[in-house]
Structure formats: C-alpha cells, structure tokens
C-alpha cells in the first residue's frame, strides 16, 4: 500500500536540519567540557583536519556547537576515556559510548575482507606491535632509528604498519603531542566497562540509520552510507524494517525523497535562532556532503585550497557563513598569528542575500567572538563581492578594522 508522502518546504527542511545539527550553538547547562562531550556524542563524529590557516577544523566545528569551547577539551576527554580517534568518513574524534560500532570496519580490515590503502607487511606490523607492547606508547618518530640497522627500514613502512594496526583495531591513539599521534595497545587505552561485542549486521544498519537521522534531521540512503564501505546492504535492510515498524517515515522535499524520524518533524514547532550568525568550517558536519548542501540549502560550495590558484573564484580557504537559517556568504580567511590579525582576503555575499545591513550587524557580532577564538585582535578586510559592501562594513565597524 502506497501512503502519500508528507511534503516539506525547503525552508522547513532547512530548519529541521539546522536544529538537528544544533546550529547555531547555545550555552548549555553544566561544565564547558561536558558541553563539548555532549556535542561530540550528538554529532557522532567530528572530522580532524591538519589545515591550520585558521583554528583547525575539529576545534572550529565544536566551537560552533559550544560557545564555551576550549581546545583543551578534546585532550581532557581523550584522557578521561570519553572520546577516541578513529575513522568515520575521514579521520575523526568519536564518542567512546559508540566504540563497538567501529568494530565491523576493524574486523573487515583485520580479516582481509576490506582493503586498507596501505599494503600489509605482517612481519613489520608484528615488530611494531611488539615494541609498543614492551616499551609502552610510541610515536612514529620513535621508530626512525631505534632497533633498526642503518638502511634497513625506510620511514614509509613503519608509518604504514602503525596505521594498519590502528585501522584493524590492535592499536589506539592514546593522545597527541604537538599534533603527532601517540599509539598504544587497544587494551591499555580502552576504559574497562566499554562494550566490545561485534554488532550484528542488523544492529549496525539500524545504528547507522538512526544516528544519521538524529544528527542530520533527514537523509537518503546515499547520504547515510557516504564513504562508509560495505554498509549499503545493512542500511538498506534497516531502512525497510524501520519503515515497516514506523520508526522512520518517508517525506518529500523539493521533489526529492528523504527519510526522517517522526520526532524530528516535531522540531518544526521549535524556534530557530535566525538572527545569530555562524562562520563555519569547510569540514563542518553540516557541509561535508557538498551535493546534499547544494540540494537542501541551494549553496554550491567548493573548498578551493585543492584548486590551482589561477582557477579559484572565492579563495584558498573559504568559510561558509550561516545566517537567517540559510548559507548566505563565504569568507576566505587566514589568521596572521604573529600580528594577531585575521586577514579576510575575500568576503563574497550570495546574490540571494538582500538584507545586507542586518547581515552586517550579525557578522560584526560574530567576528568579535571569532577573533578571540583565533587569538586575533583585529581584521584586515581586503576585498568584498560586491565591492560596495566593503565600504559599508568598514564605515560601520571601524573598531574591528586595522
């Protein structure tokens, strides 16, 4: 029997997505560190990235969910066994309470059912594992010379062995020192009460569906399995079963079909802070699937740091700007840490943005917080598109401009 699907407007869909993503963030109850933990537990993962032209992506994503966020929170949560590093669609921080749902990937890699990008050398891997077992936590650089004859072992194989052991679950990252990974045996890192039973395919599929929809509001099969190898059959079966039991519903937005949790539709009755502006990381959970961002927010976004300079339209590291419940601008920025100045090389407004004065006011308020987050004290605004906005912003907020 075909039931007619509920239709949502784009504006309604955007509201559900943003409230599910907890954007813009608000001050919650309890300690600031616990607020960060709750953000990671809700999101399910926070992508780690090495680019540091502004504060790194994992800090940036959490700062936008928790206004009291401090970079030290992640280190504290890892030390307390509440957060760990592993792979989501990319390298990420994940909540320890969901550790067992990383086991299917680890098991598949360990048994050869899933290929990792590094070739496995069993003898080298065993040598690395034995050293860590006997010596305690080690970094990649600890393997450069110690215990190896000159010319016997190049740098690449030892890093590959560490990564393979990490991906198949024998090692975990105990901590980072100056952003360098410190590896230790999994049994020495895992808190004692953590569930380590391997989920069934049915459990795994249902977990992936429910987690995605809780975090993202609405979604499609292709989005739920994005860069998650060998998960499509389990997720497909879970979707069919959850539709039958009424745990999820099918809706339509802009002639596109989505799945949604019934309770997520109730978010339409909650307020969304449209006046508050947020400058987002390119690797924010809201944005990571660019096709989805274009379909739901009509925002065509490309991170141009991977594009040759002469082909860039918006800049090297453009930060999407969320305001009025929409993605309305993008800002190419770099923190000059010596001078403590945030260079805005180009600020581009979307053509659909008409309320430029209200947007300017909201941007000024958020920039003051964003400067502090990046340990900067002023702004150099180089260029805006349209060009007329530059004079409008600078004349209104001279205290921010250096």
Q: How would you describe the overall organization of this protein?
A:
- It is a single chain.
- The protein has 402 residues and is α+β, with helices and mostly antiparallel strands.
- Among the domains are: 31-170, no CATH class; 280-396, Aminopeptidase, CATH 3.40.630.
- 38% of the residues lie in helices and 18% in strands.
- Strands 10, 11, 12, 13, 14 and 15 form a six-stranded mixed beta sheet that branches. A four-stranded mixed beta sheet has the order 1-8-9-7.
- Helix 1 (10-21) packs across helix 9 (201-216), helix 2 crosses helix 4 (72-79) and helix 9 crosses helix 11.
- It is globular.
Order of helices and strands: EHHEHHEEHHHEEHHEHHEEHEHEEEHEEH
Instruction: Quote the distance from N terminus to C terminus.
Output: 65 Å
Question: Can you summarize the main beta sheet?
Answer: 6 strands, mixed
What shape does the CA trace take?
Answer: globular
- In angstroms, what is the radius of gyration? 23 Å
Structural class: alpha+beta
Number of helices, where a helix is a run of at least 4 consecutive DSSP H or I residues: 15
* Arithmetic mean of pLDDT: 93
Helix content: 25-40%
Strand content: 15-25%
**Uncertain runs:** none
The number of distinct β-strands equals 15
InterPro entries: AlkZ-like
Organism: Zobellia amurskyensis
Protein name: Winged helix-turn-helix domain-containing protein
């Amino acid at each position: 029997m075909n039931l007619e699907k509920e239709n949502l407007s784009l504006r309604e869909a955007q509201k559900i997505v943003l409230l599910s993503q907890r954007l813009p963030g608000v001050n919650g109850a309890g300690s600031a560190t616990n607020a960060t933990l709750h953000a990671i537990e809700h999101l399910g993962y926070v992508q780690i990235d090495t680019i540091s032209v502004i504060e790194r992506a994992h800090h940036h994503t959490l700062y936008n969910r928790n206004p009291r966020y401090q970079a030290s929170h992640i280190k504290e949560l890892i030390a307390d066994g509440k957060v760990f590093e592993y792979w989501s669609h990319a390298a990420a921080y994940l909540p320890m309470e969901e550790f067992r749902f990383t086991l299917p990937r680890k098991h598949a890699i360990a048994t050869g059912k899933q290929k990792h990008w590094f070739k496995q050398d069993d003898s080298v891997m065993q040598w690395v594992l034995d050293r860590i077992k006997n010596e305690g936590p080690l970094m990649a650089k600890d393997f450069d010379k110690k215990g190896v004859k000159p010319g016997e072992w190049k740098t690449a194989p030892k890093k590959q062995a560490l990564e393979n052991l990490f991906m198949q679950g024998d090692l975990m990252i105990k901590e980072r020192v100056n952003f360098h990974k410190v590896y230790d045996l999994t049994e020495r890192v895992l808190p004692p009460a953590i569930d380590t039973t391997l989920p069934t395919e049915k459990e795994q599929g249902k977990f992936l569906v429910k987690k995605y929809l809780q975090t993202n509001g609405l979604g499609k099969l292709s989005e739920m399995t994005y860069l998650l190898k060998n998960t499509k059959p389990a997720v497909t079966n879970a979707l069919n079963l959850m539709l039958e039991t009424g745990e999820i519903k099918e809706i339509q937005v802009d002639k596109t079909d989505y799945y949604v949790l019934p309770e997520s539709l109730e978010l339409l009755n909650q307020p969304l802070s449209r006046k508050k502006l947020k400058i987002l990381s390119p690797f924010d959970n809201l944005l990571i699937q660019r096709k989805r961002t274009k379909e739901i927010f009509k925002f065509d976004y490309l991170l141009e740091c991977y594009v040759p300079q002469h082909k860039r339209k918006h800049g090297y590291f453009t930060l999407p700007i969320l305001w009025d419940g929409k993605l309305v601008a993008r800002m190419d920025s770099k923190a000059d840490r010596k001078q403590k100045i945030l260079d805005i090389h180009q600020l581009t407004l979307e053509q659909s943005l008409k309320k430029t004065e209200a947007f300017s006011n909201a941007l000024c308020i958020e920039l003051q917080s964003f400067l502090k987050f990046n340990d900067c004290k002023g702004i150099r605004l180089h260029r805006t598109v349209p060009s007329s906005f530059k004079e409008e912003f600078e004349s209104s907020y001279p205290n921010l401009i250096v």
